[in-house]
Write the structure tokens for this entry.
Amino acid sequence: MHKRLRTGLLAVLLFVSPSAVVVALNGTPAAAACNDYPHHNIEGSNPSVERRGNRGGLLINDFNYGTLNASIHRSLFVFSDIQNYVEVGWTANNGGHSGPTVYREYKNRGSDSGPLFDNKNLVKGDYYNFRVQDGDQNTVFTYFVDSDDIGQSADMNFSRGTLLTNSERRNPCDTWYAHFQNLKQCNNANPCDWTGYSSLACYVVPSDNDGYKFDKIDAQEHYVRKSGGVTC
């Protein structure tokens, strides 16, 4: 779920500067007034070549979800352009779901499906394997959590795209902390041949990032956190 302009692998976020707040590393917001609602994403990408699918282990943040002021998202994308992409991951404080909830989404020729929720139980502190793929090259993407098929996209106008990782919030009192691991790419279809990301780079970090950065471990793993990392 995005509000951004893109040119190639460059990204410019549209935002309103937030008031100064302090957010703890583990994602529990400190006491502060949240009077504005900037919508920001911190993302990584596998920029080398377009792929048919994206998968990886996403941490389910372990904190009190009742403290959230707006929705948060942790997700993976196959991104064609701002009008055409598919996304899978988990969200919280969203659509009547207070705790962490699986969702899938797509934007097709400018028409956004919005988050489509799944009732799979997610345990705080655990990792789940999310993936989205066009494994048979029919321009319809299928979404999975672990081995569970959770649905399909519309008939899209693309079958390959840039692979993105995404940590997203809509309020400066919420958290960006995230951990993505075992990131893999679908190179060819029928069926997907999953291999580790060939490369991983910082894709976008907003200027008002409250100290959160893109912290790369290797080509298949990164954090969004305040210790270490880079901005881009």
